[in-house]
Amino acid sequence: MQIIPPPLTLYIHFPWCVKKCPYCDFNSHKLKGVLDESKYIDALIADLENDVPLVWGRPIHSVFMGGGTPSLFSAPSIERLLNAVRSLLQCKPGMEVTMEINPGTGEYDNFIAYKKAGVNRLSIGIQSLKDENLKTLGRIHSSDQAINVYHQARKAGFDNINLDMMFALPNQSIEEAKHDLLALIDLKPNHISYYQLTIEANTLFAVNRPKNIPADSVLETMYIQGNKLLSKNGYMQYEVSAYSQNQRQCQHNVNYWKFGDYLGIGAGAHSKVSFGDSNRVKRYLKYKHPTQYQNSIGGYIQKSHSISTSDLIFEFMLNAVRLKQKINLKDLTLRTGIEPSELISKLDIAFQMEWVQFEDNYIVLTNEGYMLSDEILKLLL
């Protein structure tokens, strides 16, 4: 069966931070010297111009500016970039345009100008509202700064704001995690990303592992506690670590989890593009280091490859199991060309263990299966 290209979004990566956080494994670099905004924006626009032929005629449904710290860039630079996006791509009216914000960079003076430039959703990396935790995490802001930035964003007219918070921090008790989350809920953001601190390879925390990280049993208790608190206060869980109020799910991320397509521009950005005419799905990776990316000659793509059939099944499910909803097997076929029977045969053990159930043309994860999604994915390798 022929692949039908799914919805398309655009991700824009900004690779610099004031300081590299010790838990961060994203492609981010400590800013040294003066930031040459114009040079990087020029590279982003040229990168997008090169990618447009990959998606001729297809509209984009959202834009997400992440990093790194996009808000290190001035409002005029962001406006120039978004104007180029609007001129090069067909943009859905009123589409979600998200920008990540670091409370420690003082960009709230530009909030009104960012909004005029076309940004309509902010994602603020608060992580904790306890200064001791922020210090442990290597953050450059205080809890008071975080709260102030949030209120400044509201005053600037932003009515769609996500706040990030972490749990299972070093020396954090179950009760402390509860009070931290309740303080965040009191701010009444539209969306909360509540996720566990994990020690990733190639991070400072992997080299110097922090002491007194809560035990696994405590992690599970914190997670369940967080779910209950968020639900009680009107936040619906729609993904492993994402909770929304008033139908404010992050549309950009939902597209990822539904195995949608996306263009990625910027240093180290990834793209996934479906080609219905050739029944292929391809991935592209841009040059990772900012200097190499900006100075590349002859294009910004470092490598690309078509995704194999076995990898397509795994990648489809890798994203699908994150969402708290039924997995539509029709989407599997439409977006990969693979018949449902190929996936179902690989999940035999999961059905026996009652981690998943089959309903009409849907696969449904049970509560136990949702907690054991990693085990389900292992069956597909």
Describe the structure.
- This protein has 381 residues and is α/β, with parallel strands linked by helices.
- The chain is built from 16 helices and 17 strands.
- It has a nine-stranded mixed sheet, with helices on both faces.
- Helix 1 (37-51) runs parallel beside helix 2 and helix 2 (75-88) runs parallel beside helix 3 (111-117).
Tell me, what's the shape? globular
* Tally of distinct domains: 2
Uncertain ranges: none
CATH fold-level topology of the largest domain: TIM Barrel
The separation of the N and C termini measures 23 Å
Question: What name goes with the CATH superfamily of the largest domain?
Answer: Aldolase class I
CATH architecture of the largest domain: Alpha-Beta Barrel
Count of helix runs:
16
Radius of gyration: 21 Å
SSE-based structural type: alpha/beta
Helix content: 25-40%
Mean of pLDDT: 93
Q: Beta-strand percentage?
A: 15-25%
Query: What is the class of the largest domain in the CATH system?
Result: Alpha Beta
Task: Please outline the major beta sheet.
Answer: 9 strands, mixed
The count of DSSP E runs of length 2 or more, i.e. the number of strands, is: 17
Strand numbers in spatial order across the main sheet: 9-10-8-7-6-5-4-1-11
